[in-house]
């Protein structure tokens, strides 16, 4: 396992971005991050015992599947991320591949990543980060809404994103700007939520050691 926590990798990423991006762009993102952190976890986030919907999902090749079909009778760690366009998401997904995938497989626990983006974004994430676990699209954020983790960027940030070539309504499968707060959820084979960790500030993520500790306590 790597000795570099996701938080440290994020700090390095922020330093690199600070050296490249215009100051006014960085200020918009920092302001948004501060506001999200101050607001904290929404009051409506699902609690343990919530049954997730067996949502219609799409795999990275655009083929239809469902949550239960993907679980295939296994408990699972489900990672909700914003999209292939999010550098913080890529850091987390790569780290989970490196530090969690084999460990979870040995325990009979599935690792699944879910976002609201179109399947081609899922394929990009899979190939870029050499992921071996399932990467799925949740059009309309059915699972995200059941968990209470759906949000969207403010108008100022959306204008900055669009100026940089990112229009969420074009990359998302439902043509909206709705995304999810970075979240790790543990579900049992029946799709019942057993543990959840939500990060409103999207630069922060659940560390692999936290995930493994939760798996040992709540799943196996």
Automatic annotation (TrEMBL):
It is an enzyme of class 1 (oxidoreductase). It comes from the Bacteria. It catalyses: a hydroperoxide + [thioredoxin]-dithiol = an alcohol + [thioredoxin]-disulfide + H2O. Keywords: Antioxidant, Disulfide bond, Oxidoreductase, Peroxidase, Redox-active center. Its EC number is 1.11.1.24. SUPFAM superfamilies: Thioredoxin-like. Residues 46-220 form the Thioredoxin domain. InterPro entries: AhpC/TSA, Peroxiredoxin_BCP/PrxQ, Thioredoxin-like_sf, Thioredoxin_domain. Pfam families: AhpC-TSA. Belongs to the peroxiredoxin family. BCP/PrxQ subfamily. Thiol-specific peroxidase that catalyzes the reduction of hydrogen peroxide and organic hydroperoxides to water and alcohols, respectively. Plays a role in cell protection against oxidative stress by detoxifying peroxides and as sensor of hydrogen peroxide-mediated signaling events. This is thioredoxin-dependent peroxiredoxin. The lineage of its organism: Bacteria, Bacillati, Actinomycetota, Actinomycetes, Kitasatosporales.
């Amino acid at each position: 396992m790597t000795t570099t926590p996701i938080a440290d990798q994020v700090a390095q990423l922020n330093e690199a971005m600070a050296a490249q991006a215009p100051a006014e762009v960085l200020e918009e993102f920092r302001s948004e991050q501060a506001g999200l952190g101050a607001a904290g976890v929404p009051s409506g986030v699902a609690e343990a015992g919530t049954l997730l919907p067996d949502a219609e999902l799409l795999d990275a090749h655009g083929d239809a599947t469902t949550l239960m079909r993907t679980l295939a009778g296994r408990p699972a760690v489900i990672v909700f991320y914003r999209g292939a366009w999010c550098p913080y998401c890529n850091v987390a997904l790569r780290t989970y591949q490196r530090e969690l995938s084999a460990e979870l497989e040995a325990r009979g626990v599935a690792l699944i990543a879910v976002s609201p983006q179109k399947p081609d974004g899922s394929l990009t994430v899979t190939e870029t980060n050499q992921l071996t676990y399932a990467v799925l699209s949740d059009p309309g954020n059915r699972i995200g809404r059941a968990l209470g983790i759906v949000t969207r960027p403010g108008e100022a940030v959306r204008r900055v994103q669009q100026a940089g070539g990112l229009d969420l309504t074009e990359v998302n499968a439902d043509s909206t700007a709705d995304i999810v707060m970075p979240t790790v959820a543990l579900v049992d084979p029946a799709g019942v939520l057993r543990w959840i960790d939500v990060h409103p500030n999207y630069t922060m993520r659940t560390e692999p050691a936290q995930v493994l500790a939760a798996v040992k306590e709540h799943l196996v």
